[in-house]
Structure formats: C-alpha cells, structure tokens
Design brief:
Number of strands: 8
CATH class of the domain at 56-178: Alpha Beta
Order of helices and strands: HEEHEHEHEHEHEE
Radius of gyration: 36 Å
CATH topology of the domain at 56-178: 60s Ribosomal Protein L30, Chain: A
Distance between the termini: 124 Å
Oligomer: single chain
Mean pLDDT: 77
Shape: globular
Strand content: 15-25%
Structural class: alpha+beta
C-alpha cells in the first residue's frame, strides 16, 4: 500500500471517529428527553391537563375529567348515549361538590330563524336539566338559559361547524354559603333600619318659640335649601 493511501485511510477514519463523538451526546440527549417526557406523564397522572395537574373539585376538574358539553343531532333535543354518559358523570360530580350551582346554556347552529333557535336551545337546556334531576341533582341548583345561534364556537357553512354548535353547556357557579346569605340579610335589614330612622327623624315635629312666649310646632324637613 502506498504511503499516500495510508494517509488517506487514516484521515478518513479520523473523520468518522469525530462524527461518532459528536453524534453521541445528541443521541443521549434524545434518549433523556424521551425518558423525561414519560416520567413527567407518569407523575402527572390521568387528571393532568395540558396546563398541568388539575385540582379536584374545581371548574377545570369538571371540564377535563367530567365534561361540560353535550351535543345534539340536527333539530333535535334527544340526548344521545354519549350525552347521557356525560350527564351521569356530571350528576355524580355535583353530588360530590354540593357547593356549586349550575347554569345550563342551550345552543343551536346557524340555520333557521333567531326565534326558532332560541326556542330550540331552551328545549335542549331543559332536556339536560330534566336528565340531571332524574339522576339526583336538586332542581334548585339548576337554572337554564338559551342563546340560540348567537354564540357559536365554530363558524363555517358546513356540518363540521354546525355539529359543534348544537350543544348544551353546563357552567358552574359557586353557591353562596349559609353564612354569606345570613350576612347579606343582616346587611339589608341594617340598611332598612337606617332608612326607617332617617324617615322618622325627617317627619319629627319640632318646636320653635313664638313671639308671645308659646311654641310653634313645625314638621322638620329632610332636605336642605329652598
């Protein structure tokens, strides 16, 4: 073998070795990244959303782990099997967290008149309310409202959008505690008592001395100025 060939082979091997040395850290980093993602997923568990762990009993928990929306077929108020499954989960969750009340918002797709879709959305919300009541949710905790076609979540002249807009959404509200309600009643009563006291003072009869030494009675006015 010529000297030049030996030098060429040595240079080629050095080049290959350099490539291997450079590639090794990249391969290790890729492996570590995969392991890290798997470890993170295992730590977060099934109750984790894209934004991180979900706290049980929160509105985010309700949306992620229960589902706050059910969908309807065109011009229908019938609850599909999938909708019934979601509503059963909602009923169980609401039984576990009685501090919440809910508003069921009924919606429709863009087809049809505004009046017709308001009525359709109302019937859809009522259907959801009835099913939740049958599954143990106290009707006093539920109110309904219809937005018809006024609040679409997808806008296009196609079934892919219409099917997303034919829905009923369960929205949570934090119910006022009994202590809060009692405090509000006391505040209202206190204001009423103050108003009554002011009215009594405004209508009081006060005496003014007369020229002959007697008293002239006058009803006090609650206003100043002429």
């Amino acid at each position: 073998m010529a000297v030049s060939d030996i030098r060429f082979s040595a240079a080629r091997y050095r080049g290959i070795l350099a490539l291997l040395i450079c590639a090794a850290p990249l391969a290790l980093a890729a492996c570590a990244n995969k392991e890290g993602e798997g470890a993170d997923s295992a730590l977060l568990g099934p109750n984790s959303g894209k934004g991180g762990p979900v706290t049980p009993g929160t509105s985010r928990d309700f949306q992620v782990n229960v589902g706050d929306i059910v969908y309807f077929s065109s011009d229908s108020t019938d609850l599909t099997p999938e909708a019934q499954t979601t509503l059963q989960k909602q009923a169980r969750w609401l039984a576990q967290y009685p501090q919440y009340t809910i508003t069921i918002e009924g919606h429709a797709d863009e087809r049809g008149t505004r009046e017709y879709n308001i009525a359709l959305g109302s019937r859809r919300a009522t259907a959801v309310r009835g099913y939740l009541s049958q599954n143990g949710v106290n009707g006093a905790r539920i109110r309904t409202v219809s937005y018809g076609k006024e609040r679409p979540v997808a806008v296009c002249n196609d079934i892919s959008c219409w099917s997303q807009n034919r829905r009923a959404q369960t929205v949570l509200q934090q119910a006022a505690s009994r202590a809060d309600q009692a405090s509000r009643r006391l505040s209202a009563q206190s204001l009423a008592d103050k108003d009554g006291a002011i009215s009594a003072v405004s209508g009081a009869r006060v005496g003014h001395p007369r020229a002959d030494g007697g008293l002239r009675m006058q009803v006090a006015s609650g206003t100043d100025g002429g």
